[in-house]
């Protein structure tokens, strides 16, 4: 078989066709290697920047600022939207509501709501003593559960949370001493037993019950935790009716219970961070208290 170059050499027309094909291929490759002009490059860069930044300044309004975006937020996040409305509402209320006069008693909505119960208890001293005794039993139940958790189940988180909470309560009570309500209905059966003086802000009764209930939920004792929550709610109503606490004392008591239970959890997580139980949500990992 003759080499490919031999027919081309013998046939001048075939040689011309082959040369033309080579010339067209080389021309296409050269055209592909041609670089765009600097002006074209700059124009493409500016166009990309404009598309990404929304304009020459590089900033544009977020998507949620449009009507469709606001509607989407209301649909997907109704709770934060409700809080935003509450912010606007109470900003208007706070700047327009009349202040309580210095010589007037505090205005407490909880006292207003429980006025009927207060009158009933005030007219029946035996009922006041009975409610006080029942409340003292509930406080003993809280303390008993927390002590049981640390002494018999070796889970100290609730006890440490209670220690933190009562220490903070004592500091705040000394820092700001609130006046005892004029309609306070004291009883020798109440806790502290003997109708002695006590701090109003914040409620240790409520905070202790919250700490105990939180520990119960972590251990799967959901029914017992719900019972403590219900008794805590009854305790709140009784304290308001007997004027043993202001409403703000009780509300902050709930928050304090949650706060110090969380802080106690952080404390033990940090203590156990170098072990296999780090970041364990169960109180079983807090048995290492005595080893540190």
Automatic annotation (TrEMBL):
Keywords, in A-Z order: Membrane, Transmembrane, Transmembrane helix
Ranges of compositional bias, category Low complexity: 7-18
Chain ranges passing through the membrane: 79-97, 130-151, 158-178, 198-216
Pfam families hit by this protein: AtPDCT1_2
Residues covered by region (Disordered): 1-55
Keyword Transmembrane helix (UniProt): yes
PANTHER family: PHOSPHATIDYLCHOLINE:DIACYLGLYCEROL CHOLINEPHOSPHOTRANSFERASE 1-RELATED (PTHR34674:SF1)
Ranges where the AtPDCT1/2 transmembrane domain occurs: 107-265
Keyword Transmembrane: yes
Top-level lineage group: Eukaryota
Name by which UniProt lists this protein: AtPDCT1/2 transmembrane domain-containing protein
């Amino acid at each position: 078989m003759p080499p490919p170059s031999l027919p081309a050499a013998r046939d001048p027309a075939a040689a011309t066709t082959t040369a033309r094909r080579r010339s067209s291929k080389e021309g296409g490759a050269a055209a592909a290697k041609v670089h765009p002009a600097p002006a074209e490059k700059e124009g493409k860069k500016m166009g990309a920047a404009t598309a990404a930044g929304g304009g020459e300044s590089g900033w544009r309004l977020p998507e949620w600022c449009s009507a469709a975006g606001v509607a989407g937020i209301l649909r997907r996040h109704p709770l934060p939207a409700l809080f935003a409305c509450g912010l606007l509402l109470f900003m208007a209320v706070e700047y327009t509501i009349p202040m309580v006069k210095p010589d007037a008693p505090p205005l407490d909505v909880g006292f207003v709501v429980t006025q009927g119960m207060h009158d009933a208890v005030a007219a029946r001293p035996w009922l006041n003593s009975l409610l006080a005794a029942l409340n003292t039993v509930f406080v003993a139940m809280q303390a008993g559960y927390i002590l049981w958790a640390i002494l018999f189940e070796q889970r100290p988180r609730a006890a440490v949370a209670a220690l933190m909470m009562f220490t903070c309560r004592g500091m705040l009570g000394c820092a700001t001493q609130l006046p005892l309500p004029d309609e306070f209905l004291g009883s020798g059966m109440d806790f502290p037993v003997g109708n002695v003086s006590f701090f109003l802000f914040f409620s240790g009764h409520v905070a202790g019950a919250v700490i105990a209930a939180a520990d119960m939920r972590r251990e799967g004792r959901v029914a017992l935790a719900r019972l403590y929550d219900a008794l805590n709610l009854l305790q709140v109503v009784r304290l308001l009716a007997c004027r043993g606490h202001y409403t703000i004392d009780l509300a902050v008591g709930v928050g304090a219970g949650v706060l110090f239970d969380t802080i106690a959890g952080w404390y033990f997580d940090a203590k156990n961070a170098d072990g296999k139980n780090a970041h364990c949500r169960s109180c079983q990992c807090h048995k290492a208290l005595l080893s540190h």
